[in-house]
Specification:
176 residues, alpha/beta, five-stranded parallel beta sheet, 8 helices, 7 strands, 15% strand, P-loop_NTPase, Shikimate/glucono_kinase, AAA family ATPase, Cytidylate_Kinase-2
């Protein structure tokens, strides 16, 4: 287990799990959002994004947190594990709402960009991460379920974690 991509719907707990996993393994933690987003919520072009991603993935080991399906060919060309955080809808929505609320109240800077979430953007905007979670939860589950059996990815070991208890146990049992 040297190159790992943790996937899941927004709010599922990918970042928390990925940081814990990277720390346990002593691997660099890479966050797709940090690679993608620029200051003032400006998006990287695909050329910029792909170049930064390829550079980040040139390391021997890493835990990569994030989806960005258009990067699958880049991320998974030389990967050995994909871990899918697939918690129930109710838990994922609760986590997405809680995170959005805390970030908008504390004005936590995201990804070293100066970007912060606002209450209005998180709860009342078409760009709301909560709305994004609502719209993508079911679609992601269908897509990830298909990917698990896609012959193009038979070089990858897929692990599906369906509860925080299962995720905690997975990390605790590493290197035993």
């Amino acid at each position: 287990m040297k190159k790992i991509n943790v996937i899941g719907t927004s709010g599922s707990g990918k970042s928390t799990f990925s940081r814990l996993l990277a720390n346990k393994l002593g691997y660099p933690y890479l966050e797709m959002d940090a690679i993608f987003w620029k200051p003032n919520w400006q998006e990287s072009t695909d050329d910029e994004f792909f170049c930064k991603l390829k550079h980040s993935l040139a390391q021997e080991t890493w835990v990569l947190d994030g989806n960005y399906s258009r990067t699958t060919d880049i991320k998974w060309s030389n990967i050995d594990h994909v871990i899918w955080i697939d918690y129930p809808f109710s838990r994922t929505m609760y986590q997405a709402i809680k995170r959005a609320f805390i970030r908008s109240v504390t004005k936590t800077e995201l990804w070293g960009t100066g970007n912060t979430e606002t209450f209005a953007k998180s709860f009342f905007s078409r760009d709301s991460v909560i709305l994004w979670t609502l719209k993508t939860y079911k679609r992601n589950r269908v897509r990830y379920s298909k990917i698990l059996h896609d012959p193009r990815y038979r070089h990858i070991k897929f692990i599906r974690l369906t509860s925080p208890k299962m995720a905690k146990k997975f990390i605790e049992e590493l290197n035993r």
